[in-house]
Amino acid sequence: MNNLTLNSFSKVLSLVALFTCIQLFQACKSEPKFNASLLTGSWSGIDWKVKGKSSGRDASSVNFVFAPASEDGSAGTYMASYGSQKESGNYTLDSDKLYTTAEDKIEKVVRVIQLNRDTLILGMNRMGQEEELVLVIQQQ
Questions:
Q1: What global pTM score does this model have?
Q2: In this structure, what is the dihedral angle of CA atoms 108, 114, 115, 119, given to the nearest 10 degrees?
Q3: Do residues 15 and 75 both lie within one domain?
Q4: Residue 96 per-residue DSSP state
Q5: Is the domain of 11 the same as that of 77?
Q6: Half-sphere exposure (CA, 13 Å, Cβ side) for 27?
Q7: How many angstroms separate the CA atoms of 35 and 57, rounded?
Q8: Per-residue confidence at 128, pLDDT binned at 50, 70, 90?
Q9: How many domains, the chain?
Q10: What is the extent of the structural domain holding 21?
Q11: Each residue of 67-101: b (16+ CB within 10 Å) or e?
């Protein structure tokens, strides 16, 4: 009878350990850092910083338009322009990373520093220099 009690206790202990591990994994699951729906709309640049200081670059010539992802879970679409340069393609937002893939190009990633209903700040690395592009919403 002692073996039966010990065996039952061992099974219960194993179940408790399994349940605890499942709870820990669920608690560690990362929540989205930013609400992707806030990205939807037309954005225009207002400042372009290099190493925390305004760079003098014409931020107003930078524009993005983000359309939301469809309900089937596919990526959203975007159009971007910087002066005479234009691109369009698909995007996904994963935590604080914005992934864009222009048509016939490889995927690029930038860091989203801030995203709220009226401001988007993107962190970029250009040849080892940290840059920040500050954009404001024009139309949602």
A1: 0.74
A2: -110
A3: no
A4: T
A5: no
A6: 6
A7: 29
A8: confident
A9: 2
A10: 1-30
A11: eebeeeeeebebebebeeeebebbbbbeeeebebb
Longest dimension (CA), the chain: 84
**Site of tokens 């194993």:** 14
pLDDT band at residue 27 using 50, 70 and 90 as cut-offs: very low
Please tell me the distance from the alpha carbon of residue 82 to that of residue 64, in angstroms, as a whole number: 9
Smallest Cα–Cα separation from 116: which of 97, 99, 136?
136
Residue 39 to residue 50: CA distance in whole angstroms: 23
Cα separation values, 110 from 14, 15, 17, 88, Å: 44, 43, 40, 16
Beta strands, E only, the chain: 41-50, 53-54, 62-67, 76-82, 85-94, 97-102, 108-115, 119-126, 129-139
The domain that holds 100 is classified in CATH as: 2.40.128.280
